[in-house]
Amino acid sequence: MDEFIIRCLDCGKEERYAPLKLPCPACGSEWREARYDLSTVRRIWQDNLHARPFDLWRYHELLPLSKDPPTRRIGGTPLYPAPNLAGMLGLKKLFIKDERLNPTGSFKDRQAAVTVKALSEHGIKEAVVCSTGNVAIAFAAACARAGIRLWAFLTSLVPAEKMHEVAIYGTEIIKVTGTYDQAKQLAAQFALSRGLYLDRGARSLPGVESMKTIAFEIAEQLEWNAPDWYLQPVSGGLGPYGVQKGFAELQELGLIEAMPAIGVIQTEGCSPMATAWQLGRSQAEPVLAPTTYITTLTTGDPGRTYTLLRERMLAGGGGTMTAVSDEAAYRALHLLAKTEGLSVEAAAAAGAAGLIQLAEKGIFNPDDVVVLNCTGHTTPVEDRLLAPDWATDIQLETQGGAPRDGLLAALASIDQRRLSRVLIVDDQPDARRLIRRVLEARGRYNIDEAGTGIQALEIVDQQVPDLILLDLMMPEMDGFSLLEKIKSRQHTHNVPVIVVTAKELSSDEWHKLDGKIERLITKGNFLSDELIAEIEHMLNPQDT
Predict the structure, then answer these.
(1) CA–CA distances in Å: residue 506 to residues 483, 512, 522
(2) In 3-state terms, the chain is what percent helix, strand and coil (to 5)?
(3) 300 with 288: CB under 8 angstroms?
(4) Which residue from 149, 223, 313, 430 has the highest number of Cβ atoms inside 10 Å of its Cβ?
(5) DSSP state at residue 183
(6) Helix, strand or coil for residue 157?
(7) Helical spans, DSSP H, in 361-415
(8) Residues 6 or more apart in contact with residue 141 via CB below 8 angstroms
(9) 336 half-sphere exposure, CB direction, 13 A CA radius
């Protein structure tokens, strides 16, 4: 819309937007932001918003555009409830914003779409980006549609699959053997020498404004409410920086009452923002040599983005920044797939790992509305993310013999695999399903379920399990009585038992369990690595 200006964050000077005019003419600062006539926006949205398609162009009055928005759909991604993962974490209202459904499979399509539209409005026909993968893919597709020549600087660590996708759009690829920050310096020098537009992350106004649309969509999907928490995996910080601005504008418009807390998740191998936050510092110390395998999260120097985001978080809804290991991200990747049916890239999984970590630390209240940004899925699943025995090979004879006999033999070989058998005993179906999903996400087991003590005894009489997970509070025959019967029978006496309960035990009840169980855990603590490790040790002691 015409009613927007850009304002310098350092001296306050206001002027019209021009993509190639980066520094403030008054003070030389490169940090400026868009300001809008919110009273006009409020009136337009009240009259027209409900009739528009649900995509990011729906909110074009709060984007730095002067002409009508394009018709190609970007954004408008679903907000899925995640009940299985929520139950594991002790949450009641967990949602996943599924940004995988954008045209090239990541939330960076928003950044590319708004930026390229702004460049086209100003007659710009050539641009430069530096990327760890997703930005280059998104810009390559958007520039191809707009007829803009794109130069993409990528580090040699970017997965080959991502480079191939950038190349297929006709982008000029410059592969840099060095860190992402070194590649950014080279891209900046190249753009300056040719007088080309360079996307500068949080210093590029269209990119910041594009990320606001995530906040707008979430608030509308929650019936014009902000979540209590918004979580996102972060490399340079553009995403949450823009999302935070979006929620702030909604609050100014009177469409939401309060700002959400922001959760910023980084990898331990490249966590300048999380480290600075934990130390209470206003500036992040650059990481010169990132050690994470998750190359899309390797911005070692977030610069002022961290400082501004920190200031606005502290002044708004608060939040936290934390780091997770690559291993935790890979575990979360499997967990999301096996509990919520979402296949995500490792960067998105880092966000899920951060969610799990914060939940285990008790950061969330059980009734909090928590939204996790599932940022993307653009890379085929790599072999190293799977266990060595991720598939069972079957070879059928192609010549001679009876095909049916060969097929039956092959099927028999599947049945002969020795999987540990686990019996879950709980009268609550949701609790049984929750434990089943945790076990299936972390290993391969044959799992039986019993809703009563009587059913459990019938099952163990048919086939003795390798492990029993037992609830204590059940009707008819409670867990204490069932445990006595199991331990009194010769064929089940040595079966290890882990008690899973929400009950606070008296001294007499503790005495009843003494010597009969391996461990007692509290419901809601199913994701404990220590617990999983102990289960695996009991089931496969030769492997630990």
Answers:
(1) 17, 10, 15
(2) 45, 15, 40
(3) yes
(4) 313
(5) H
(6) coil
(7) 403-415
(8) 103, 104, 109, 112, 169
(9) 32
| Strand pairing class (93-98; 79-81) | antiparallel
459, 470 contact by CB (below 8 A): no
CA dist 54 and 74 (Å) reads: 9
Token pair, residue 472, equals 């204590």
Closest by alpha carbon to 244, among 135, 321, 317? 317
Which DSSP string corresponds to 261-313?
EEEEEEETTB-HHHHHHHTT-SSPPP-SS---S-GGG--S--THHHHHHHHHH
Residue with tokens 């601005």: 245
> How many whole angstroms separate alpha carbon 119 and alpha carbon 135?
16
- Do residues 487 and 476 touch, judged by C-beta distance below 8 A? no
pTM: 0.82
Print pLDDT tens along the chain (544 aa): 457 999 999 999 999 999 998 899 999 999 999 999 999 999 999 999 999 999 999 999 999 998 888 878 999 999 999 999 998 898 999 999 999 999 999 999 999 999 999 999 999 999 999 998 899 999 999 999 999 999 999 988 888 888 888 888 989 999 998 888 898 999 999 999 999 999 999 999 999 999 999 999 999 999 999 999 999 999 999 999 999 999 999 999 999 999 999 999 999 999 999 999 999 999 999 999 999 999 889 999 999 999 999 999 999 999 999 999 999 999 999 899 988 999 999 999 999 999 999 999 999 999 999 999 999 985 554 555 555 655 444 454 544 445 555 556 555 554 445 678 999 999 988 888 878 877 776 667 888 999 999 999 999 999 999 999 999 999 889 999 999 999 999 999 999 999 888 778 888 899 889 889 988 887 666 556 666 777 777 777 655 5
Structural domains in the chain, sorted by start:
4-106+205-374 (3.40.50.1100), 108-203 (3.40.50.1100), 420-543 (3.40.50.2300)
Structure token digits, residue 538: 């009991």
